[in-house]
Amino acid sequence: MKVLMFGWEFPPHISGGLGTACQGITQGLTANDVDVLFVIPKANGDEEQGSIKVLGAADVPLSAPQQENAKFREAMTFFEVNCPVIPYLGPEEFCRYSEARTELLQAKATTTSPVRYPFTGGYGKDLMKEVWQYALVATAIARGNAHDIIHAHDWLSFPAGIMAKEVSGKPLVVHVHATEFDRSGENINMQVYETERQGMLQADRIIAVSELTRRTIIDRYFIDPEKVETIHNALETATVLPERRKAPFREKIVSFIGRITYQKGPGHFIDAAAKILAKDKGFRFIMAGSGDMMFAMIEKAARLRISRYIHFTGFLDATQRDKLLAASDVFVMPSVSEPFGIVPLEAIKAGVPVIVTKQSGVQEVLQYALKTDWWDTDALAESIYSLASYNGLSRMLSRESRREVANLRWEKQGNVIRELYQRVMDEKHQ
Q1: Which domains does the chain show, CATH number per domain?
Q2: pTM of the full structure
Q3: Are 202 and 170 contacting, i.e. CB atoms less than 8 angstroms apart?
Q4: pLDDT exceeding 90 applies to what percent of the chain?
Q5: Residue 274 CA: distances (Å) to CA of 12, 123, 422
Q6: Sign (positive or negative) of CA dihedral 305, 311, 313, 315
């Protein structure tokens, strides 16, 4: 079985959990004898390919762009927008730029010479232009590479998946890792919403990373429930427990790892820290990540007079993240809305007890974790203090949570996805 897969990022060049999940999915599929061609906007040459093939759209020459552009314009009218967006940042960033440029549809329209479109592979001000280019290149890739099924990850890749389906006639599976409601609450960007919904409507099947996300797809995007299946994310198997490291502080270490955006609830982490520090100064709080609320959180800590106890590290790569987890006593994911949340699984693998919100997908697969509502900072503070103070509770949760996620492996989930592929292909041939 051959799958043509589209995704916006792939390790080591990632901004969050999307790229990590894509890597895990491809590993799980190849372990189940599925050949994967993974297409990203820009390949840097150091992607962790393993047994899959990673192709950069920027490296694919297009011939006869005038004809391609005409077909693209006709098929993709609903993707014309007035504002480029940054998909994994908060709503403050979404309309920072005035309008999306449309040179793509006019660029080199009078020549038949091969064209390579440039990509940054990031989330900058020309994002929507790059999404269009990516979809255009997808048509050439779909024509030039044999495949049985198409798999597109999140809205940035949905146009590419649709165009690949248009030219190859193969079935399309779209994978929803996060929705616009997760990123922006009720202040959604309608262009992104419509892009998501069109991808879901054009897909033959939709994979949701959690039941929480599945309900959002059904209730907020008005999609047939029979079309949406939940397949949870998984964890790379650890053969040995990572060595615990002594932190440079004698205080208890409480860690937050993620984008510092509204969705991730960083303000609630700071509020809980202030409540704990008001009665016990024996704690250090580490915020690892970057995002549009980072400076606001630094200012918030200063206003609460707890800056000396809170450390902002910026973005951490996988090695740095693992070092932080190995030194942590408690891991907290205080997300307002979290479709899944892979980092708690990484913390569990490192032997760290975790606290997650009830408004997260990962809580569906965790029994041995403390769970709070995202708005209840009193409960969050009490949970952190309990795990840091009572070694018996901490050890029990650490031990039992590692046992319960032991079967949540990418190889197993890859087989589930492969079986979904087969059902979709069989339905297509009926």
Answers
A1: 2-234+410-429 (3.40.50.2000), 252-404 (3.40.50.2000)
A2: 0.85
A3: no
A4: 72
A5: 35, 33, 52
A6: negative
